[in-house]
Amino acid sequence: MRERMRITSVNIGNAETVVHGNQSVRTGICKHPVSGPIRIGETGLTGDRILNGKHHGGVDQAVYAYSADDYDWWVRSMDRDFEPGLFGENLTIRGLPSSMVIGDRLLIGDVVLEATSARIPCKTLAARMQDRSFGMTFRKAERPGIYFRVLNTGDVQAGDAVTLVESDAGTVTVLDLFRFAYETSHDAEQLRRFLDAPIAERVRAQVEAQLANL
Known about the structure:
This protein has 214 residues and is of the alpha+beta class. 25% of the residues lie in helices and 31% in strands.
């Protein structure tokens, strides 16, 4: 158990229209920092909007967190500002590893979060960034941020300390699942290893489909 992390920003979003070129998207990706305590329930943060329920939200992707240290990397790499919430994350956390093991947990006061999957970029993120090639840039960076399920609810706010509790039996990492999303060939042993981990149900369905095709 290690306590070396801290929430730098809690971010929620309303439905907004993002326009890029001839594309117009109604989305909840535009998260903005809020002050004071915010409740984290089983399906996410109070007041936060999820519009695309097919790919986002739900109990296995209730909270999306991104590392403040990875934002620092983006600033150095792209020479532009990256404010908290830009990638649509609910929690911006200083010290959050880029790749946790699936099943690792974060303790934030009463809140317990369990890592379930990686964020896979989509055209909405590219529109948000006003860069249609940003999906590929995000893929190559391999700093996807992490989705969590909520094992215990409670309030969080900026400044809260975060404790990482590592999974004893975990072998599947967030980056393993991120890379899986782009692989064109798959190994049955690796896919079975994924299924042994507490991965998000959306990802589980994708892994099971690939395994069935082998």
